[in-house]
Amino acid sequence: MIDAVRLADASKRAWCLTQKVTRKRRATLRDVAQAADVSVATVSRVLNAPATVSPDTRERVEGAIDSLRFMRSPAARAINSGRTRAVAALVPTLDHAIFARFLGAMETRLGELGLSLLVATTGGDSEREERKAWGLVEIGAEGLIVSGVSHSAGLDRLADRHDLPIVATSFFDPDATMPTIGYDNRAVARTALDHLSDLGHRRIGVIHGPLDGNDRTQARLDALEASSDRAQLSFHAGDLGVGGGCRATAAALALPDRPTALLCLSDVIALGAMFELQRAGLAIPGDVSVIGIDDLSWSKHSAPGLTSVSLPVSEMGAQAAAALASWIETQERPQHQLLSHRLVPRGSTGPPAGV
Amino acid sequence: MIDAVRLADASKRAWCLTQKVTRKRRATLRDVAQAADVSVATVSRVLNAPATVSPDTRERVEGAIDSLRFMRSPAARAINSGRTRAVAALVPTLDHAIFARFLGAMETRLGELGLSLLVATTGGDSEREERKAWGLVEIGAEGLIVSGVSHSAGLDRLADRHDLPIVATSFFDPDATMPTIGYDNRAVARTALDHLSDLGHRRIGVIHGPLDGNDRTQARLDALEASSDRAQLSFHAGDLGVGGGCRATAAALALPDRPTALLCLSDVIALGAMFELQRAGLAIPGDVSVIGIDDLSWSKHSAPGLTSVSLPVSEMGAQAAAALASWIETQERPQHQLLSHRLVPRGSTGPPAGV
DNA sequence: AATCGCAATGTAACTAGTTACAAAGCGTCT
DNA sequence: AGACGCTTTGTAACTAGTTACATTGCGATT
User: Fold this and answer.
1) Total-model pTM
2) Residue–nucleotide distance: A165 CA to C15 C1' (Å)
3) Is A149 on the interface with B (CB under 8 A)?
4) B278 with A71: Cβ contact below 8 A
5) Per-residue pLDDT band at A153 (split at 50, 70, 90)
């Protein structure tokens, strides 16, 4: 321990030395002031309120700024303003259309609000989530948006310790300790099930991804199990991604009593299901209907178009960004927000063959 | 102007006042020192080199830290260390699997290197790219990774002004002003074309996305046009995404002399093409072969599996992260890096019908 | 001519940490 | 006993900006 510290210390000093030798110190505000023969306050004013400086002086200062290639130190600015103008988002992975879309919308809204976005991935691991969250706060994130994994105790500690604004998304739960902005995952799953059962399907295969640490999937499955009186449900788990959907679908199709419809807990999984059905030579929806959840951008273009439950992911990103920004600005904790989902019927679902 | 400044000033003061009333000032290092009855230096030591402080004192200080819920100000740390430990990435959009994968790999590697990732989207607009880049640097990004849009003059100015490390990715160009880490887009396109022409295809439809500001697409098209002696090429532009692929494919299929193969400049576009072919009742590859570029994670799972040119996108993200980190650390500009691509033949390509 | 108001500028004290250097305390060796 | 070395701690000066307050100088009133 002691050795490690000493080592770190030594290397730090060495690095600092190199610094001083290698690169000429960057110009500071005082250098500019000296070069322009004015006070530091005047330079600062040229930067922050140019109108209060005489055109004459301003020009001289601007000249000095340019010739010294001066740039304000963000850290020094932050120390004075108390603001870093950066917030962070934690998502399980970027390699999934739904999170990417969410982050995209969030980044756009944050940009409008003058904030930048730090992104970290957790891999759905709540220990890693906590570690990354601390790291982000330590480099200056003014607030956090978490998605996918439930708010772990660690995040609550973090929020408490820093008075740190943390918004949880992808689910709605008015009883949660932190504000939640999301949809009702149980209702989402029921919407999909209702659609299939309304069409007359009684044997339905539920295709889903991994469960570990994924509250959304769990909530959806719970809701389906609770509604299992409406139809005979079989559950098939697969890995993440299209490949997982393929394999789980293959398992469902191998059932002696083949389902007449597949309820996929995401459109990505549904894409795998459609590929697998095509491979099996089964017609959609003639032989088997397919429904997804998410309504990704390509879903309307598939052949046939994929029936899906549209989730307001972009809106969720924008709302979360706005809520967090206002929380930071006003110090007032935002309200929970329930966003509505919507069934988008397309060609991939129809009545079962026998009907 | 003056009024605006005054207004801003006034509201700022008001805000500060509110601050002081509403939230109790956060504890500083000096508060902790006072509470523990030690000097600020000792508190700092407890934080940075606990071994050099006697267990007795350390305990007292740690107690004070806990009871005051003290947290170091990131800005103050940054001002002293000269490091913010954050770098930024600029991508055209997050809503595209290829950039999401790239960013994911980058974030992972940066995390290993103790750096955090700021993400901003440019929408493929170089003006916006420049604006966002400045914004990111102003809040403390120590380096930049750009992708997709060519290094605009604005970025060069930024790099020059700050001595800011900027790495360009998604293309390889040893003559570029900033280090590039990427693949040879011309060669990538030729690889795809060679595969089709080796199979015997002579009428090939090239399906591509929008051109504005997209150097990668342009480079690929240039290479194809230069090789147009190998086959008769028709070019079909579509919007971004699967929908664009569908529409452009529809146009290609409507040609009096229908192409026997479709060369899609991305797998996303290829997915659109496959959907469209399915809609048209054409068999893949029996009637029309399809090849993509990217080799996305689902490409191997489609029906039939999509032949694609695999791009080392994840590796590119990791390499860019490592290169940028080392540039920041050592002040030594990294080398350009050419990453190799690879044809992945799958079921979607075969000899044309007549052969 | 004296006073007032205002714009333009400077001085110095802030922000919240880190750290070089000094000093005190204590045990050990000569 | 005095010198030396070690650990432990404190003082004060840094980092690079912002800003409250003081000051100067000029034109316009009174």
Assistant:
1) 0.90
2) 23
3) no
4) no
5) confident
